[in-house]
Amino acid sequence: MPAQSAPAIEYGVTPTDVMASMAGLDFVRAIFEGKLPAPPIMQTVEPFDSTAEPGIVVFHSIPGFRHYNPIGSVHGGYAAILLDSAMGLAVHSALPAGTGYTTLEFKISFIKGMTENTGPVRSEGRTLSVGRRAATAEARITDAKGRLLAHATTTCLVFELPATSPVGS
Question: Most exposed among 8, 25, 45, 151, judged by the fewest C-beta atoms under 10 Å?
């Protein structure tokens, strides 16, 4: 019996009018299920086993040599991508159709360094507060033994999305 390969992941940007037509949770789940393209930035971290519930997003990734900095450990930008994505998607999963967000600020605390031997890491983002104009969230990265590797908090601006994409964009 031939081995089955994982389906190819499509990367791209979803048109604003498509995003605006969906509740945030449906939008996030559609990305995780491959019904909508995954954000291009995720090519660098290759998330898997992704789940979304209202206000909570979880996904896994494996840090590797390609993520190393000049001092021989995983660059902090790898953790930043995971944490910012988990927090932003958690916020998005709590928004109604026609609403978007953007990160205004985030703070990261690095607790334990990662290497190519760390193995799979779990990133979990949770909303703390979601209002009409602002949302806050937190995220954690843990290793397979449940040890905390990094954590973060964010504030996001919440705004109404335009109903249609401008012509030519």
Answer: 8
Mean pLDDT, the chain, integer: 93
Tell me the whole-structure pTM to 2 decimals.
0.90
Residue 146's CATH number: 3.10.129.10
Domain total for the chain?
A: 1
Position 49, amino acid: D
Distance CA 7, CA 63 (A): 21
User: How many alpha carbons fall within 13 Å on the CB side of residue 108?
Assistant: 18
What CA–CA distance (Å, rounded) separates 136 from 125? Answer: 11
